[in-house]
Design brief:
Layout (H helix, E strand, L loop, with lengths): L1 H19 L10 H25 L5 H25 L5 H18 L1
């Protein structure tokens, strides 16, 4: 589980470095880019949790829990994609989703 958390922190650092190279017109990222970033983080973290649960041959209950958590993270990331692409049409839902994801990420890390 620690390996997945370190991989997620690594992915988040890469995304932060990528965003740091952009010219800073505004301090906060636009809503669409925030949702796309969060979606990518959830998809990668969920896929790595699923891969870790499947690749390591162990029948421990913690692997089943890691697989379920990975699947939920992956589904949440895939669900955020259409919302990120239509953030202009549904601004209230997009803002709420961004706040929920940011709160969940802060609670985990």
């Amino acid at each position: 589980m620690a390996m997945m958390a370190s991989f997620a922190i690594f992915c988040r650092a890469l995304l932060a470095l990528n965003a740091a190279a952009l010219p800073h017109r505004r301090l906060a990222l636009p809503l669409r880019r925030r949702l796309l970033r969060d979606s990518a983080i959830l998809i990668v973290l969920g896929a790595s949790a699923l891969f870790h649960a499947v690749a390591v041959p162990n029948t421990d209950a913690s692997h089943a829990l890691a697989a379920a958590a990975g699947l939920l993270m992956w589904v949440a990331g895939v669900t955020l994609l259409p919302l990120a692409l239509t953030a202009g049409r549904f601004p209230a839902a997009a803002r709420l989703a961004a706040q929920l994801v940011e709160a969940a990420v802060q609670a985990l890390f």
